[in-house]
C-alpha cells in the first residue's frame, strides 16, 4: 500500500466490509484527525482493487466455457465406471455360486449321484467339492455344519479341519501348519512317530 496511509486504508476496507456507508467512514476518519487527501487516497485504493477483475476466477470460467461438455462426459463416465465396479464387487461372492449351479452341465451330476449312494455321502461329497473346486456338491450334504463349511470352501483354509473331517492327509497338514506358524504344539497330534519327529525337527 505505498503512497497511502495503511491504517486509513485498512479502516476503510473494514468499515465497508461491515456495511458502513462511505460518508460515515469519512466522518469517523476526519474526527480522528486524518486529512481529506489521505481519506480520498484510501477510498481510491479500495475502489481500484474492487473494480479489478478476479483473474483466476475468470480463467476458471473460461476453462469451463470451453471444456464443459468434455467435463460432463468424463464425469458421467467416471460415475458409471465406479457404479459398475461397485456392482461387480458386491456380487463377486455370488459368481462362484452361479457357476456352481451350472455344474450339472459339466458332468457333476454323475459323481454326485455316486456319492449319495456311497456309505458316507457327506464325506464323498466334500471330497468331490474339493477335487473339482466347486460348491455344487455341498447342497446335498446332510449335516448342516459340514454343509456350511463346504459352502465356505473350508478346504482352502490352513487349519486342517478338512483333513480331520475326511480323515486323510492329517499328519501332513499338521506338519505344514507347524512350519508355517512356528507352532510346534500341533506336532503332538501327529499319530505316526516318524512324521511326529519330522514335524518337531522342522519347526
Helix content: 55-70%
What's the helix count? 10
Q: How big is the Rg?
A: 40 Å
Overall shape? elongated
Counted up, domains total 3
Range of strand content: under 5%
List the helices and strands in order: HHHHHHHHHH
Largest sheet features: none
Compute the separation of the termini in Å.
78 Å
Number of DSSP strand runs: 0
| Mean of pLDDT | 80
The low-confidence parts are: none
Helix/sheet category: mainly alpha
Write the layout of secondary structure elements.
Layout: H1 6-17, H2 22-31, H3 36-51, H4 55-101, H5 109-116, H6 121-132, H7 144-151, H8 161-166, H9 170-181, H10 193-202
Describe the protein.
The mean pLDDT is 80. This protein has 3 domains: 6-51; 53-93; 103-202, no CATH class. The protein is elongated. The protein has helices at residues 6-17, 22-31, 36-51, 55-101, 109-116, 121-132, 144-151, 161-166, 170-181, 193-202. Helix 1 (6-17) packs across helix 3. It is mainly α and 203 residues long.
Observed structural traits:
203 residues; mainly alpha; 3 domains; 10 helices
In short:
The protein is mainly α and 203 residues long. Helix content is 69%, strand content 0%.
Amino acid at each position: 500500500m505505498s503512497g497511502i496511509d495503511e491504517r486509513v486504508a485498512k479502516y476503510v476496507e473494514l468499515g465497508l466490509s461491515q456495511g458502513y456507508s462511505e460518508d460515515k467512514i469519512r466522518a469517523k476518519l476526519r474526527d480522528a484527525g486524518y486529512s481529506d487527501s489521505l481519506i480520498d487516497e484510501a477510498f481510491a485504493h479500495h475502489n481500484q482493487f474492487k473494480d479489478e477483475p478476479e483473474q483466476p476466477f475468470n480463467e476458471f470460467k473460461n476453462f469451463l466455457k470451453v471444456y464443459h461438455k468434455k467435463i460432463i462426459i468424463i464425469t458421467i463416465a467416471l460415475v458409471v465406471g465406479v457404479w459398475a465396479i461397485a456392482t461387480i464387487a458386491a456380487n463377486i461372492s455370488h459368481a462362484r455360486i452361479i457357476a456352481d449351479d451350472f455344474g450339472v452341465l459339466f458332468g457333476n451330476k454323475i459323481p454326485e449321484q455316486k456319492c449319495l449312494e456311497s456309505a458316507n455321502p457327506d464325506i464323498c461329497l466334500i471330497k468331490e467339492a474339493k477335487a473339482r473346486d466347486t460348491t455344487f456338491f455341498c447342497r446335498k450334504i446332510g449335516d448342516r455344519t459340514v454343509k456350511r463349511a463346504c459352502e465356505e470352501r473350508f478346504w482352502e483354509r490352513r487349519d486342517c479341519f478338512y483333513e480331520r473331517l475326511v480323515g486323510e492327509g492329517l499328519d501332513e497338514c499338521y506338519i505344514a501348519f507347524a512350519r508355517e506358524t512356528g507352532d510346534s504344539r500341533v506336532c503332538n497330534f501327529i499319530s505316526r512317530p516318524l512324521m511326529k519327529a519330522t514335524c518337531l525337527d522342522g519347526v
